[in-house]
Protein backbone atom coordinates (compact mmCIF):
# COMPACT_ATOMS: atom_id res chain seq x y z
CA UNK A 1 0.00 0.00 0.00
CA UNK A 2 1.32 3.39 -0.89
CA UNK A 3 1.31 6.71 0.84
CA UNK A 4 0.58 8.29 -2.53
CA UNK A 5 -2.91 6.86 -2.91
CA UNK A 6 -4.93 9.95 -1.98
CA UNK A 7 -7.40 11.15 -4.54
CA UNK A 8 -10.90 10.10 -5.48
CA UNK A 9 -9.58 9.06 -8.89
CA UNK A 10 -6.75 6.88 -7.53
CA UNK A 11 -7.03 3.14 -8.22
CA UNK A 12 -7.88 0.59 -5.54
CA UNK A 13 -9.69 3.05 -3.29
CA UNK A 14 -13.32 3.06 -2.19
CA UNK A 15 -15.93 5.59 -1.13
CA UNK A 16 -17.03 6.01 2.46
CA UNK A 17 -20.31 4.28 1.68
CA UNK A 18 -18.53 1.26 0.15
CA UNK A 19 -16.34 0.94 3.25
CA UNK A 20 -19.46 1.26 5.43
CA UNK A 21 -21.13 -1.61 3.55
CA UNK A 22 -18.12 -3.87 4.17
CA UNK A 23 -17.94 -2.93 7.86
CA UNK A 24 -21.67 -3.55 8.26
CA UNK A 25 -21.31 -6.98 6.72
CA UNK A 26 -18.63 -7.85 9.28
CA UNK A 27 -20.41 -6.50 12.35
CA UNK A 28 -23.86 -8.04 11.76
CA UNK A 29 -22.97 -11.42 13.32
CA UNK A 30 -21.74 -10.04 16.67
CA UNK A 31 -24.64 -7.55 16.66
CA UNK A 32 -27.16 -10.40 16.35
CA UNK A 33 -25.53 -12.20 19.27
CA UNK A 34 -25.14 -9.18 21.55
CA UNK A 35 -28.42 -7.40 20.76
CA UNK A 36 -30.45 -10.46 21.69
CA UNK A 37 -28.61 -10.76 25.00
CA UNK A 38 -29.08 -7.05 25.71
CA UNK A 39 -32.74 -7.07 24.71
CA UNK A 40 -33.53 -9.98 27.02
CA UNK A 41 -32.28 -7.93 30.00
CA UNK A 42 -33.64 -4.43 29.24
CA UNK A 43 -36.91 -2.69 28.45
CA UNK A 44 -36.87 -1.25 24.92
CA UNK A 45 -36.76 2.38 26.08
CA UNK A 46 -33.70 1.75 28.24
CA UNK A 47 -32.12 -0.32 25.48
CA UNK A 48 -32.51 2.56 23.03
CA UNK A 49 -30.68 4.97 25.37
CA UNK A 50 -27.89 2.47 26.01
CA UNK A 51 -27.45 1.74 22.30
CA UNK A 52 -27.30 5.48 21.50
CA UNK A 53 -24.56 6.15 24.07
CA UNK A 54 -22.51 3.10 23.09
CA UNK A 55 -22.80 3.93 19.40
CA UNK A 56 -21.63 7.51 20.00
CA UNK A 57 -18.46 6.22 21.69
CA UNK A 58 -17.81 3.78 18.85
CA UNK A 59 -18.41 6.45 16.21
CA UNK A 60 -15.82 8.82 17.69
CA UNK A 61 -13.21 6.04 17.94
CA UNK A 62 -13.98 4.65 14.49
CA UNK A 63 -13.74 8.03 12.76
CA UNK A 64 -10.32 8.63 14.38
CA UNK A 65 -9.04 5.16 13.50
CA UNK A 66 -10.29 5.11 9.91
CA UNK A 67 -8.74 8.56 9.39
CA UNK A 68 -5.44 7.24 10.76
CA UNK A 69 -5.60 4.40 8.23
CA UNK A 70 -6.32 6.91 5.46
CA UNK A 71 -3.33 9.02 6.53
CA UNK A 72 -0.92 6.10 6.85
CA UNK A 73 -2.13 4.06 3.85
CA UNK A 74 -1.10 1.06 5.95
CA UNK A 75 -3.09 -1.73 7.62
CA UNK A 76 -3.36 -1.74 11.41
CA UNK A 77 -0.52 -4.22 11.60
CA UNK A 78 1.78 -1.82 9.75
CA UNK A 79 0.73 1.14 11.88
CA UNK A 80 1.55 -0.58 15.19
CA UNK A 81 5.19 -0.96 14.07
CA UNK A 82 5.67 2.76 14.66
CA UNK A 83 4.72 2.57 18.34
CA UNK A 84 5.87 -0.98 19.23
CA UNK A 85 8.91 -1.23 16.93
CA UNK A 86 9.55 -3.42 13.88
CA UNK A 87 10.17 -6.56 15.93
CA UNK A 88 7.93 -5.63 18.84
CA UNK A 89 4.94 -5.44 16.52
CA UNK A 90 5.33 -9.14 15.75
CA UNK A 91 4.03 -10.04 19.21
CA UNK A 92 1.03 -7.76 18.71
CA UNK A 93 0.34 -9.24 15.29
CA UNK A 94 0.44 -12.79 16.70
CA UNK A 95 -2.20 -11.86 19.29
CA UNK A 96 -4.40 -10.25 16.64
CA UNK A 97 -3.92 -13.21 14.28
CA UNK A 98 -5.05 -15.65 16.98
CA UNK A 99 -8.05 -13.49 17.82
CA UNK A 100 -9.14 -13.08 14.20
CA UNK A 101 -8.68 -16.78 13.40
CA UNK A 102 -10.67 -17.65 16.49
CA UNK A 103 -13.62 -15.60 15.28
CA UNK A 104 -13.27 -17.12 11.80
CA UNK A 105 -13.61 -20.61 13.31
CA UNK A 106 -16.49 -19.64 15.61
CA UNK A 107 -18.42 -17.97 12.78
CA UNK A 108 -17.81 -20.99 10.52
CA UNK A 109 -19.27 -23.18 13.27
CA UNK A 110 -22.26 -20.84 13.58
CA UNK A 111 -22.75 -20.94 9.79
CA UNK A 112 -22.89 -24.75 9.85
CA UNK A 113 -25.49 -24.85 12.61
CA UNK A 114 -27.58 -22.05 11.03
CA UNK A 115 -27.70 -23.77 7.63
CA UNK A 116 -28.59 -27.03 9.35
CA UNK A 117 -31.52 -25.26 11.06
CA UNK A 118 -32.71 -23.90 7.70
CA UNK A 119 -32.46 -27.28 5.99
CA UNK A 120 -34.19 -29.10 8.84
CA UNK A 121 -37.24 -26.93 8.19
CA UNK A 122 -37.45 -28.62 4.78
CA UNK A 123 -36.94 -32.11 6.20
CA UNK A 124 -33.26 -32.34 5.18
CA UNK A 125 -30.46 -33.49 7.49
CA UNK A 126 -26.85 -32.62 6.60
CA UNK A 127 -23.93 -33.09 9.03
CA UNK A 128 -22.56 -29.84 10.47
CA UNK A 129 -18.92 -30.55 9.37
CA UNK A 130 -20.06 -30.78 5.74
CA UNK A 131 -21.88 -27.45 6.03
CA UNK A 132 -18.91 -25.84 7.77
CA UNK A 133 -16.66 -26.96 4.89
CA UNK A 134 -19.09 -25.49 2.34
CA UNK A 135 -19.19 -22.26 4.31
CA UNK A 136 -15.40 -22.01 4.39
CA UNK A 137 -15.26 -22.43 0.61
CA UNK A 138 -17.66 -19.47 0.32
CA UNK A 139 -15.61 -17.40 2.81
CA UNK A 140 -12.37 -18.10 0.95
CA UNK A 141 -13.92 -17.33 -2.44
CA UNK A 142 -15.23 -14.03 -1.05
CA UNK A 143 -11.77 -13.05 0.16
CA UNK A 144 -9.03 -14.65 -1.93
CA UNK A 145 -9.68 -12.30 -4.86
CA UNK A 146 -9.01 -9.22 -2.75
CA UNK A 147 -10.71 -6.12 -1.43
CA UNK A 148 -12.79 -5.57 -4.58
CA UNK A 149 -14.49 -8.97 -4.27
CA UNK A 150 -15.17 -8.33 -0.58
CA UNK A 151 -16.96 -5.14 -1.58
CA UNK A 152 -19.07 -6.97 -4.17
CA UNK A 153 -20.13 -9.61 -1.63
CA UNK A 154 -21.16 -6.88 0.81
CA UNK A 155 -23.18 -5.02 -1.83
CA UNK A 156 -25.30 -8.12 -2.42
CA UNK A 157 -25.54 -9.52 1.10
CA UNK A 158 -25.94 -6.42 3.29
CA UNK A 159 -29.22 -5.23 1.67
CA UNK A 160 -30.62 -8.77 2.09
CA UNK A 161 -29.55 -8.74 5.76
CA UNK A 162 -31.22 -5.37 6.34
CA UNK A 163 -34.46 -6.53 4.70
CA UNK A 164 -34.48 -9.74 6.77
CA UNK A 165 -33.92 -7.79 9.99
CA UNK A 166 -36.90 -5.57 9.29
CA UNK A 167 -38.99 -8.62 8.33
CA UNK A 168 -38.14 -10.03 11.75
CA UNK A 169 -39.04 -6.69 13.37
CA UNK A 170 -42.39 -6.70 11.54
CA UNK A 171 -43.14 -10.28 12.59
CA UNK A 172 -42.17 -9.58 16.19
CA UNK A 173 -44.17 -6.36 16.61
CA UNK A 174 -47.15 -7.83 14.75
CA UNK A 175 -47.30 -10.97 16.86
CA UNK A 176 -49.64 -11.53 19.77
CA UNK A 177 -46.81 -12.44 22.14
CA UNK A 178 -47.24 -10.72 25.49
CA UNK A 179 -44.25 -8.60 26.44
CA UNK A 180 -42.59 -10.06 29.51
CA UNK A 181 -41.72 -7.50 32.17
CA UNK A 182 -38.09 -7.52 33.28
CA UNK A 183 -37.73 -8.37 36.97
CA UNK A 184 -34.11 -7.17 37.19
CA UNK A 185 -32.52 -5.10 34.46
CA UNK A 186 -28.87 -4.83 33.45
CA UNK A 187 -27.09 -1.77 34.90
CA UNK A 188 -26.55 1.20 32.56
CA UNK A 189 -22.74 0.90 32.64
CA UNK A 190 -22.73 -2.83 31.98
CA UNK A 191 -25.26 -2.41 29.18
CA UNK A 192 -23.25 0.36 27.45
CA UNK A 193 -20.14 -1.79 27.88
CA UNK A 194 -21.83 -4.64 26.02
CA UNK A 195 -22.75 -2.34 23.12
CA UNK A 196 -19.18 -0.99 22.90
CA UNK A 197 -17.42 -4.27 23.63
CA UNK A 198 -19.39 -6.18 20.99
CA UNK A 199 -17.50 -4.56 18.14
CA UNK A 200 -14.53 -2.76 19.74
CA UNK A 201 -12.02 -5.16 18.13
CA UNK A 202 -13.33 -4.24 14.66
CA UNK A 203 -13.08 -0.54 15.58
CA UNK A 204 -9.53 -1.09 16.83
CA UNK A 205 -8.55 -2.68 13.50
CA UNK A 206 -10.56 -0.30 11.30
CA UNK A 207 -7.39 1.36 9.88
CA UNK A 208 -7.33 -1.75 7.65
CA UNK A 209 -10.30 -0.27 5.80
CA UNK A 210 -9.24 3.35 6.17
CA UNK A 211 -6.15 2.51 4.11
CA UNK A 212 -8.45 1.86 1.13
CA UNK A 213 -10.74 4.90 1.43
CA UNK A 214 -10.62 7.79 -1.11
CA UNK A 215 -9.73 10.57 1.32
CA UNK A 216 -10.35 11.90 4.81
CA UNK A 217 -13.89 13.09 4.04
CA UNK A 218 -14.84 9.58 2.98
CA UNK A 219 -13.09 8.15 6.07
CA UNK A 220 -15.36 10.30 8.26
CA UNK A 221 -18.42 9.28 6.23
CA UNK A 222 -17.54 5.59 6.67
CA UNK A 223 -17.25 5.94 10.46
CA UNK A 224 -20.45 7.95 10.90
CA UNK A 225 -22.62 5.88 8.53
CA UNK A 226 -21.44 2.57 10.01
CA UNK A 227 -21.34 3.26 13.74
CA UNK A 228 -23.39 6.44 14.11
CA UNK A 229 -26.36 5.48 11.93
CA UNK A 230 -26.54 1.83 10.84
CA UNK A 231 -25.06 0.14 13.93
CA UNK A 232 -27.54 1.58 16.47
CA UNK A 233 -30.51 0.87 14.17
CA UNK A 234 -29.47 -2.75 13.58
CA UNK A 235 -28.66 -3.24 17.26
CA UNK A 236 -32.07 -1.92 18.31
CA UNK A 237 -33.93 -3.99 15.72
CA UNK A 238 -32.03 -7.08 16.86
CA UNK A 239 -32.96 -6.36 20.49
CA UNK A 240 -36.74 -6.09 19.92
CA UNK A 241 -37.68 -9.83 19.70
CA UNK A 242 -35.60 -10.72 22.76
CA UNK A 243 -36.89 -7.74 24.73
CA UNK A 244 -40.46 -8.90 24.03
CA UNK A 245 -39.82 -12.55 24.93
CA UNK A 246 -36.85 -12.29 27.37
CA UNK A 247 -35.12 -14.98 25.30
CA UNK A 248 -31.35 -14.57 25.12
CA UNK A 249 -30.96 -15.58 21.45
CA UNK A 250 -32.63 -14.44 18.24
CA UNK A 251 -33.60 -17.98 17.22
CA UNK A 252 -35.05 -18.62 20.69
CA UNK A 253 -37.03 -15.38 20.58
CA UNK A 254 -38.40 -16.08 17.11
CA UNK A 255 -39.37 -19.61 18.16
CA UNK A 256 -41.57 -18.06 20.86
CA UNK A 257 -42.98 -15.58 18.35
CA UNK A 258 -43.80 -18.43 15.99
CA UNK A 259 -41.27 -18.59 13.13
CA UNK A 260 -37.52 -19.20 13.08
CA UNK A 261 -36.89 -19.41 9.32
CA UNK A 262 -36.23 -15.67 8.71
CA UNK A 263 -33.83 -15.58 11.67
CA UNK A 264 -31.97 -18.70 10.49
CA UNK A 265 -31.62 -17.33 6.94
CA UNK A 266 -30.46 -14.00 8.39
CA UNK A 267 -27.77 -15.76 10.42
CA UNK A 268 -26.55 -17.57 7.28
CA UNK A 269 -26.12 -14.31 5.35
CA UNK A 270 -24.56 -12.62 8.39
CA UNK A 271 -22.02 -15.41 8.74
CA UNK A 272 -21.02 -15.11 5.07
CA UNK A 273 -20.38 -11.36 5.16
CA UNK A 274 -18.91 -11.45 8.67
CA UNK A 275 -16.45 -14.23 7.96
CA UNK A 276 -15.45 -12.84 4.57
CA UNK A 277 -14.38 -9.69 6.46
CA UNK A 278 -12.71 -11.70 9.21
CA UNK A 279 -10.84 -13.70 6.58
CA UNK A 280 -9.75 -10.50 4.83
CA UNK A 281 -8.36 -9.02 8.04
CA UNK A 282 -6.87 -12.35 9.10
CA UNK A 283 -5.06 -12.62 5.77
CA UNK A 284 -3.63 -9.13 6.20
CA UNK A 285 -2.21 -9.80 9.65
CA UNK A 286 -0.88 -13.29 8.89
CA UNK A 287 0.80 -11.93 5.75
CA UNK A 288 2.90 -9.66 7.98
CA UNK A 289 4.14 -12.77 9.82
CA UNK A 290 4.55 -15.06 6.79
CA UNK A 291 5.89 -12.62 4.23
CA UNK A 292 7.10 -15.29 1.79
CA UNK A 293 3.62 -16.58 1.03
CA UNK A 294 1.18 -14.86 -1.36
CA UNK A 295 -1.98 -13.65 0.32
CA UNK A 296 -4.31 -15.98 -1.57
CA UNK A 297 -2.43 -19.01 -0.20
CA UNK A 298 -2.75 -17.63 3.33
CA UNK A 299 -6.51 -17.19 2.79
CA UNK A 300 -6.86 -20.79 1.59
CA UNK A 301 -4.83 -22.07 4.57
CA UNK A 302 -7.06 -20.11 6.97
CA UNK A 303 -10.10 -21.63 5.29
CA UNK A 304 -8.76 -25.19 5.69
CA UNK A 305 -7.90 -24.63 9.37
CA UNK A 306 -11.28 -22.97 9.99
CA UNK A 307 -13.00 -26.02 8.47
CA UNK A 308 -11.18 -28.34 10.87
CA UNK A 309 -11.60 -26.24 14.03
CA UNK A 310 -15.09 -24.98 13.13
CA UNK A 311 -16.35 -28.55 12.74
CA UNK A 312 -15.61 -29.21 16.41
CA UNK A 313 -17.81 -28.34 19.38
CA UNK A 314 -15.86 -25.18 20.18
CA UNK A 315 -18.43 -22.60 21.23
CA UNK A 316 -18.44 -23.34 24.97
CA UNK A 317 -14.70 -23.05 25.54
CA UNK A 318 -13.45 -20.87 22.69
CA UNK A 319 -15.61 -17.76 23.05
CA UNK A 320 -14.40 -17.00 26.62
CA UNK A 321 -10.84 -17.28 25.33
CA UNK A 322 -11.61 -14.88 22.47
CA UNK A 323 -13.27 -12.43 24.86
CA UNK A 324 -10.11 -12.53 26.97
CA UNK A 325 -8.05 -11.70 23.88
CA UNK A 326 -10.54 -8.90 23.21
CA UNK A 327 -9.41 -7.21 26.41
CA UNK A 328 -5.88 -6.94 25.01
CA UNK A 329 -6.88 -5.41 21.67
CA UNK A 330 -8.48 -2.04 22.65
CA UNK A 331 -5.28 -0.79 24.41
CA UNK A 332 -3.41 -1.30 21.13
CA UNK A 333 -5.80 1.20 19.51
CA UNK A 334 -5.28 3.57 22.45
CA UNK A 335 -1.53 3.45 21.86
CA UNK A 336 -1.52 4.01 18.11
CA UNK A 337 -4.07 6.83 18.50
CA UNK A 338 -1.81 8.53 21.07
CA UNK A 339 1.22 7.93 18.83
CA UNK A 340 -0.58 9.48 15.88
CA UNK A 341 -1.50 12.69 17.70
CA UNK A 342 1.90 12.95 19.37
CA UNK A 343 4.20 11.93 16.51
CA UNK A 344 2.52 11.08 13.19
CA UNK A 345 0.12 13.85 12.24
CA UNK A 346 2.41 14.71 9.33
CA UNK A 347 2.47 11.13 8.10
CA UNK A 348 4.15 7.73 8.43
CA UNK A 349 7.64 7.13 7.00
CA UNK A 350 8.31 3.39 6.85
CA UNK A 351 11.98 3.95 6.04
CA UNK A 352 12.45 5.62 9.44
CA UNK A 353 11.58 2.36 11.21
CA UNK A 354 15.05 1.02 10.37
CA UNK A 355 16.67 3.75 12.49
CA UNK A 356 14.31 3.32 15.44
CA UNK A 357 14.43 0.70 18.18
CA UNK A 358 13.26 -2.72 16.96
CA UNK A 359 11.44 -3.26 20.26
CA UNK A 360 10.07 -0.40 22.36
CA UNK A 361 9.74 -1.67 25.95
CA UNK A 362 7.89 1.38 27.31
CA UNK A 363 5.13 0.87 24.77
CA UNK A 364 4.67 -2.68 26.00
CA UNK A 365 4.48 -1.34 29.56
CA UNK A 366 1.69 1.06 28.54
CA UNK A 367 -0.10 -1.76 26.71
CA UNK A 368 0.27 -4.08 29.71
CA UNK A 369 -1.12 -1.47 32.09
CA UNK A 370 -4.07 -0.79 29.79
CA UNK A 371 -4.81 -4.52 29.45
CA UNK A 372 -4.60 -5.07 33.22
CA UNK A 373 -6.98 -2.18 33.86
CA UNK A 374 -9.40 -3.60 31.27
CA UNK A 375 -9.20 -7.04 32.87
CA UNK A 376 -9.74 -5.58 36.35
CA UNK A 377 -12.71 -3.42 35.40
CA UNK A 378 -14.42 -6.13 33.34
CA UNK A 379 -14.23 -8.38 36.41
CA UNK A 380 -15.53 -5.68 38.76
CA UNK A 381 -12.32 -5.16 40.77
CA UNK A 382 -12.85 -1.41 40.39
CA UNK A 383 -14.68 0.99 38.06
CA UNK A 384 -13.49 3.98 36.03
CA UNK A 385 -15.85 4.97 33.20
CA UNK A 386 -18.05 1.89 33.66
CA UNK A 387 -17.03 0.66 30.19
CA UNK A 388 -14.01 -1.70 30.49
CA UNK A 389 -12.87 -1.48 26.86
CA UNK A 390 -12.97 2.33 27.02
CA UNK A 391 -11.06 2.22 30.33
CA UNK A 392 -8.27 0.20 28.74
CA UNK A 393 -8.06 2.51 25.71
CA UNK A 394 -7.85 5.64 27.87
CA UNK A 395 -5.28 4.18 30.30
CA UNK A 396 -3.10 2.83 27.48
CA UNK A 397 -3.23 6.22 25.69
CA UNK A 398 -2.34 8.18 28.83
CA UNK A 399 0.36 5.67 29.76
CA UNK A 400 1.92 5.90 26.31
CA UNK A 401 1.87 9.70 26.36
CA UNK A 402 3.50 9.80 29.81
CA UNK A 403 6.10 7.11 29.18
CA UNK A 404 7.08 8.31 25.72
CA UNK A 405 6.59 12.09 26.01
CA UNK A 406 10.33 12.82 26.07
CA UNK A 407 11.08 10.78 22.98
CA UNK A 408 11.06 12.64 19.67
CA UNK A 409 9.37 11.13 16.66
CA UNK A 410 11.81 10.21 13.93
CA UNK A 411 11.22 10.35 10.25
CA UNK A 412 7.68 11.69 9.98
CA UNK A 413 6.83 12.63 6.43
CA UNK A 414 4.51 15.21 4.98
CA UNK A 415 1.90 13.40 2.88
CA UNK A 416 -0.56 16.15 2.22
From TrEMBL:
Q: What is its main location?
A: membrane
Write down what this protein is called: Cytosine permease
Q: Does the keyword Transmembrane apply?
A: yes
Key word DNA-binding present:
no
- Which residues, if any, are the signal sequence? none
* Transmembrane domains' residue ranges: 12-35, 47-68, 89-106, 126-147, 156-174, 186-206, 218-238, 250-272, 293-311, 317-338, 358-376, 382-403
The entry lists its GO molecular-function terms as:
cytosine transmembrane transporter activity
User: Member of which family?
Assistant: Belongs to the purine-cytosine permease (2.A.39) family.
Q: Which GO terms describe its cellular component?
A: plasma membrane
Instruction: Report the membrane topology from the UniProt record.
Output: Multi-pass membrane protein
Judging by the UniProt lineage, the source's domain of life is Bacteria
Q: Which Pfam families match?
A: Transp_cyt_pur (PF02133)
Location in the cell:
Membrane
Amino acid sequence: MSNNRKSDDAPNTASGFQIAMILLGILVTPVLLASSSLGSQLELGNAAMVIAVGSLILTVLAVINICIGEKARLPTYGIVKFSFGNQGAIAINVIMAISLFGWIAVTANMFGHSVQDVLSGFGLSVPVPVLVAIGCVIFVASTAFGFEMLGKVSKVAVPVIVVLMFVILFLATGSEVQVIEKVQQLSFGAAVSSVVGTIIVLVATSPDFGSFVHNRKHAVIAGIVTFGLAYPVLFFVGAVPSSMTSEGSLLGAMAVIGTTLPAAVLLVFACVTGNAGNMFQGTLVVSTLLTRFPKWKITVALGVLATIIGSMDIMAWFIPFLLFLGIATPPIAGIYIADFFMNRRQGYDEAALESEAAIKPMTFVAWGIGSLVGFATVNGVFTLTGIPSLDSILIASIGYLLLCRNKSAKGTVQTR
